[in-house]
Specification:
4 helices; 7-stranded mixed sheet; 165 residues; 30% helix; alpha+beta
């Protein structure tokens, strides 16, 4: 499988405390659109900031910000699974960045960085109604595990092990 060519001006950088606001706004926009499902849908900003300050300083989590030409586009997270067996990948982009190829390029680059840093194996839980997300993850080397979605309407994907020079 060939790697996605990085988009000109696309940058992935580690999240800092100053990203708390944009991450919260991006997350709220996704919640409002029903693109994601979570129990934290009514999370106040102050609660988010407390969680976020721990998340960006957590050595077992990789939290990246996606930017293009110094404009904040979204975020990419690699969170340890509850079972301590791999990392769950999630990506969120502002609506105006979707469909531009930025998500795929960011996911490909972010997964390569995560794997080189030892964040493996990588998994994604994708809503069966989110075909765009499914296509992006599949193009980045994720394959479905099993054919049936969970009772919550998500299907689990795992990234095939990549080799790097």
């Amino acid at each position: 499988m060939s790697a996605a060519r990085p988009k000109a001006g696309l940058v992935l950088r580690r999240a800092t405390l100053s990203d708390a606001g944009p991450v919260w706004q991006c997350r709220q926009a996704l919640l409002d659109s029903s693109a994601i499902q979570t129990s934290a849908s009514d999370e106040p900003f102050e609660t988010h900031v407390a969680w976020f300050s721990c998340a960006v300083n957590d050595s077992v989590r990789l939290f990246l910000i996606i930017e293009k030409d110094s404009n904040w586009l979204g975020y990419l997270r690699f969170d340890p699974q509850d079972t301590n067996d791999g990392y769950r990948v999630s990506i969120a982009l502002h609506a105006d960045a979707r469909g531009s190829g930025m998500g795929r390029a960011a996911l490909m680059d972010g997964c390569a960085r995560a794997e080189l840093a030892g964040f493996t194996p990588l998994f994604a839980d994708i809503s069966v109604t989110n075909q765009a997300s499914r296509r992006i993850f599949e193009k980045c080397g994720f394959i479905p595990l099993g054919s049936e979605p969970s009772s919550e309407g998500f299907q689990r994907f795992m990234r095939e092990r990549q080799s790097y020079p």
